[in-house]
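Before the break, one more example. Copy the sequence into your notebook; we will annotate it together after we see the structure.
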Amino acid sequence: MKNSKFKKLATVTLVVIMAFSSGTVVHAGEIASNYDFYNYSQLQFISESEIQLWWDNAASEAFAAITPEQLEYVASLSASMHEIENAVAMFYTFSLYNEIVLDDNCLLEVLTNFNFQPNSSSFLPLHWHYARLFSLHDGLSASHVTLIQTFYSQRADAISQNFFVDTHQNMQRDAYRHFLWNWLITSSLGYRSARVHTSNHEIASSILRRSSLSLQQAFDTRFNQLIAQGSTVAQATAGAEAARDAMAINLRQIMLQNTNLVVFHGYFNGDEVMDLINNAHGRQSFLTANHFIDEPQNVFVRLWNSGDIIRNSHSAITPTLHNMLFNTGLWRP
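Here is what the structure looks like once it is written out:
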């Protein structure tokens, strides 16, 4: 039985909305000016169980909203998805084989998130899978997504290791990795490509953290339906993947559609908030830098010393930072 109080607070009506892909630049000064839009003394938070109930209800709505037309649409993206998937797999296989620098955290993420589906041509990290799916859905090209997930990602990782180290309180290397990743993407592919993909990367993380079981259940349900209808294992797997991915797109749409700040506080954890804000600083800093004299490392250090860069995930779990993300929309692709 649904809690009526929570239902009134968090009921979502799923509608088809246009993906937010504004090229509007929100500069660092504008970020700071939005910190105090909301009076948090009047904000009544809800419990973790109520937040998870919102996610579970949203997942049910996202699955129920899948249409045959949407399944066809997701299937139409499969060629680009496989193109990116294979290119990324080859890039990192080559990099690992030749001992090109991959930090322990990145390697751990790759190894722990690989998911193998029957008859699939390769392993895929689901986090990256959804980041690329959402980015293609938002209009990025397969070539841009591939470059972002391979060359620019690894370049930022390798360079950051040469300049900074991480401690429990000061995740300076990790912060610079995200800052530089977005600086490099913006410099080569443009602000929109950087914002769309890196925001989708964190949204994908949030969805998997909150709804991975629901997505797997969607896959299993559709797979069993197709097998019962006489499909081969390969056909059923493809159909189940399409259903799961369609559900993920619908779930992201529900997130984007929500206008309730209390519910928004259940979207992102400290790591995701930290990355979203440091990503934004990287994009914005490239656009405002004097490129005759400003190197990304120097700009980053100035922002670090001024306190604008988020230093660790613990300091990112604050109402103030959630409020800033909500009001500026910096989390949106």
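The chain has 15 helices and two strands. The mean pLDDT is 81. Try to locate both features in your own notes.
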